[in-house]
Design goal:
With about 400 residues, the protein is mainly α. The chain contains 14 helices and three strands. The chain has a three-stranded antiparallel sheet with strand order 1-2-3, with no helix packed on it. α5 runs antiparallel to α6 and α6 packs antiparallel against α11. The radius of gyration is 26 Å and the shape is globular.
Length: about 400
């Protein structure tokens, strides 16, 4: 467990360091230095809360999950109101007050994962059923996802939906109930994509970015140029050209191409390797958790980080359509960075308390209760008449009941 925790901490530290370095590189040639300052502030704040959460026993979330989920739902509802939420690029996803901005969907990620972990642990024996294993938790999950979807934030909706489904399956839900739901959700998503002109254009650009490189595929095309121009070793830190007004969002969602352009293929493959190490460490920590709640909570957090990194890298390499998700620990974004570090703190808390009790993989030892007085008397009678002596495990058998009579 200590080795897994060490690799987890080192992986996160390496990604955070790279993120700050790339933010610095982005402002070398007249960039907005506010991004670097804010990133440093959010990193310090995130590390503080990560440490605090790591010290506290993660099981307190069992008793307070409803408060975390309630706050997330209220914030998601308030951000949709024009008096509270701020519309940026056609979406109302942020609270903005001066230089401070916060995205409530980031808070909803951890809140929803905690709820599903609590529910899967609380109703563990009923998870294979249709109503209690899928319908009831699905109603709460759908209500949260619905609020995120109407912002609109399709990327976060799909991400959280996938994480929730995986957690339900891990908790014991049956595939035969989940598969029809996934088919229906996929069909609905296709219909909505067809009806939405903006996302339809993005889908067309995904299929042929070169043909639409001056329109909907401009961002992805510039991303591919940045990755290709970096070669094996890159152009050197600070020498990237795509950040000079060619690649939009190079400090946020599209920071991975900037890494490839300036530091080369070696650095980008190193980032992927670090994320792989982080995921393996998280899976090991979850598997060695002391209870089922910790197992589900650790699994959900690990899958969230891994899937978000996979989607971000898939988008900038045109492997996936544009979703607008940040690269964990590297992209600029205060609320995303803060909640990711808090989630890592929860993983560390699970690791610190793992192994003190029986893990999920360990055999269960059942201690027998003291034998009642009437059992001793019956055994004495059996011995006198040379009847077979039964043990505590056989007391409930039909043969023992007949002997007792």
């Amino acid at each position: 467990m200590r080795v897994a925790t060490m690799f987890l901490v080192l992986s996160v530290a390496g990604l955070l360091t790279l993120g700050v370095v790339m933010q610095y590189s982005a402002v070398i040639y007249g960039g907005n230095q506010t991004f670097l300052f804010k990133q440093l502030c959010w990193t310090a704040l995130g590390l503080f809360f990560c440490l605090m959460v790591a010290i506290i026993d993660y099981r307190w979330l069992k008793d307070w999950f409803w408060l975390l989920l309630g706050v997330a739902v209220v914030l998601l509802a308030l951000v949709l109101h024009p008096d509270f939420g701020t519309r940026i690029n056609g979406a109302r996803r942020w609270f903005v007050y001066g230089w401070f901005s916060f995205q409530p969907s980031e808070c909803a990620k951890l809140a929803l994962i905690t709820f599903v972990a609590w529910y899967g642990d609380r109703y563990r024996r009923y998870m294979p059923t249709f109503w209690q294993g899928l319908v009831i938790p699905g109603l709460m999950i759908s209500s949260v996802l619905g609020l995120i979807f109407v912002e609109p934030d399709w990327g976060a909706t799909i991400l959280l939906g996938a994480v929730s489904v995986v957690m339900l399956l891990v908790a014991g839900a049956r595939w035969k109930f989940v598969v029809p739901l996934l088919i229906g959700a996929a069909a609905l998503l296709v219909i909505l994509l067809i009806l939405d002109p903006v996302r339809s254009e993005r889908l067309r650009a995904w299929f042929n970015p070169e043909m639409m490189k001056d329109d909907a595929g401009y961002q992805v095309w510039q991303s591919l140029l940045a990755l290709g121009s970096g070669g094996l070793e890159g152009l050197g830190l600070g020498n990237g050209r795509q950040k000079l007004g060619f690649l939009p969002l190079h400090q946020t969602d599209f920071i991975f191409p900037l890494i490839g352009e300036e530091l080369g293929l070696v650095a980008t493959m190193g980032v992927i390797l670090v994320f792989a190490v982080l995921i393996v460490s998280g899976v090991f920590i979850a598997a060695k958790a002391r209870d089922n709640f910790g197992f589900l909570l650790g699994s959900g957090i690990t899958f969230l980080i891994g899937l978000q990194a996979f989607v971000n890298i898939g988008v900038v390499t045109n492997t996936l359509p544009n979703k607008g998700l940040a690269l964990p620990f590297i992209s600029y974004g205060g609320s995303s960075l803060l909640m990711m570090l808090v989630s890592v703190g929860v993983l560390i808390s699970i690791a610190r308390r793992g192994g003190k009790s029986q893990s999920l993989m360990a055999p269960v030892t059942v201690e027998s209760e003291p034998m009642p007085a009437w059992v001793d008397a019956e055994i004495s009678v059996n011995a006198k008449w040379r009847l077979p002596v039964v043990g505590p495990a056989d007391i409930s058998s039909p043969g023992w009941r007949s002997v007792k009579k």
